[in-house]
């Protein structure tokens, strides 16, 4: 699916197969790493938003690139796709020496999607919470407990 509507509340934000594979690979450190992702991701979102306000496309590239890679590692494919679009657009703006005005809609969607993703990741790693996450199978046609 190319350029999905990232504002669609029905759009799954985490791929269960990637999430579970990463959890198994990381073992006991998984929850701590999710916490770091939340902290670092919050900083990256703030940095991207500040760069957007300043019209500084070059300042968007690295935090978007980092968030893209880290999000995909946890199966947060929707967030990874959004940050890839921001990164690619910011790189294009730098190459053409343009302000990143065209990225405003994407940047505005970043914080709500990041929060939604973190809610799902935290819920799925909390053994006391009933599993209601917005998670999909790799086939993409099964959703697990959409909110």
TrEMBL record:
It comes from the Bacteria. Keywords: Two-component regulatory system. GO terms for biological process: phosphorelay signal transduction system. GO terms for molecular function: protein kinase activity. Coiled coil: none annotated. Gene3D superfamilies: HPT domain. InterPro entries: HPT_dom_sf (IPR036641), Sig_transdc_His_kin_Hpt_dom (IPR008207). The keyword Transferase does not apply. Residues 33-98 form the HPt domain. This is HPt (Histidine-containing phosphotransfer) domain-containing protein. The lineage of its organism: Bacteria, Pseudomonadati, Pseudomonadota, Alphaproteobacteria, Sphingomonadales.
